[in-house]
Amino acid sequence: GAGVSQSPSNKVTEKGKDVELRCDPISGHTALYWYRQSLGQGLEFLIYFQGNSAPDKSGLPSDRFSAERTGGSVSTLTIQRTQQEDSAVYLCASSLGTGGEQYFGPGTRLTVT
Amino acid sequence: QKEVEQNSGPLSVPEGAIASLNCTYSDRGSQSFFWYRQYSGKSPELIMSIYSNGDKEDGRFTAQLNKASQYVSLLIRDSQPSDSATYLCAVAWRGAAGNKLTFGGGTRVLVKP
Known about the structure:
The structure holds two protein chains of two kinds. Chain A is an all-beta fold. Chain A has strands spanning about 5, 10-15, 20-25, 30-35, 45-50, 65-70, 75-80, 90-95, 105, 110. Chain A contains no helices and ten strands. The termini of chain A are far apart. Chain B is built from no helices and eleven strands.
């Protein structure tokens, strides 16, 4: 079956611009996660959605970052007023439910110039 | 601060040998443990999950968990050049809503023909 999909695969933006990254989870997966992987750095948790519950935003690095999940499926991660330190690969993962195995999408490589 | 530690490597093994990767974690309350493989420029791919003490085998991979020692390992038998990648250990914390993962920094494995 189809895996997690993300778009765009690459995004180059100028400092100060806003960007939107999209994630389409595996069909039937109720949990959706966003992570960030910076060059030479490990994977960093950003935000988590489970069903209709309030999201866990504890990993968001600043208030410039926000995310929403519409209809319990597709999610959008928005970064406002991008900074060079936001350059990273943004990864989305989904799981069947809480405690389940997480499967990653191909990621969006964001470059802020 | 919950931490997951891995030796960064590179771990160099000859083709056909056993590669042994280790991971330690800081929180005794951790319940779920995962190994991901990440090829350069690609997203993490789940290869093993383990939830209880002991060994779990899947093909050429064996995961070993020792909760008392807060230690999880991955063995790759009959290593192949295609196993050359970075292996990420991930831990889910008890009580963490939605099983968000904390990742180790990864161990780079090089399998030499």
